[in-house]
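re: ur question from yesterday

yeah so i grabbed the chain u mentioned. its 312 aa long if i counted rite. heres the sequnce exactly as i have it in my notes:
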Amino acid sequence: MIVIIFGLQKLMHVRLWHEGLLTFTKTTTIMKAFLGMGLLGSNFVRAMLQKGDTIQVWNRTAAKAKALEVYGAKAFDSANEAVRDAEVIHVTVKDDETVDEVLEAASKGFKEGAVIIDHTTTSASGAKQRTEAWKSKGFTYLHAPVFMGPQNALESTGYMLVSGDQSVIKKFEPELSKMTGKLINFGAEEGKAAGIKLTGNLFLLSLTAGLSDALALAKSHGIKAQEIIDLFNDWNPGAMVPSRLKKIAEGKFNEPSWELNMARKDAGLMMNAAKSTGTKLAIIPAIAAVMDQWIEKGHGNDDWSVIAKDSI
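ran it thru and got these structure tokens back, copy pasting raw so excuse formatting
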């Protein structure tokens, strides 16, 4: 007879040797804590519980933490209680100030040598400062921001970014890889992952603002949003992003595919059409102003992407 015993903290694996003898190998489950049960944090916890992890949780609004008990988490009323006995502490809160505040409150319950893994989108300087500060107190801090929405967190898809001490990253790579679709390591520079996350988010903000202007201009022409969706299904401008970025990075502005003078003419047509119907555009006027500056510098016949020249 083979007996397999499951416990909350320990799992007894049974191995049956060819000789018919049984030996038991004891594996200790790592206790984890998760601070911040917003949409992202709560779904991270649900996914971790589904994988068999033992998770202690906390949130300022206690009800959000207690709601996860039905999935197997153990909720606490204070952050320092939630982290007690936890070897790994995950954090997903609002910003730098909140991260510092929550970790300071939780630190009273930190286990010796505990590791803090922070998924909050923060400043690069804040990530660097926390890495140094917690190291001086005997704890490891790793910033691991994500390009993941709540559904990604639940399904362990999307992207997680890390940078910094490579020995720490190597140790926790298996753990973090289970939480996401792809873990991207940006090297030994502390704070680089934070800077790249902000850069990516800037692009997302710009993209949404651009779509808003496109829909506003379409509306001023009596064109429905679905017709723009249909257009993008056939002509996908997003597919141009990698090649456009490469061209900008290479600085090949004297090989125009769309001259700056012509792009500025089109921007004028866009603004005039919007103005005629009382439609406000959010970003095109600002882009047109930058175009004018570069035309004045003598770049009117260059590729319109020359407006990004000083950003390289």
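noticed a couple things. The chain has a mean pLDDT of 92. also The chain is about 45% helix and 15% strand.
anyway ttyl
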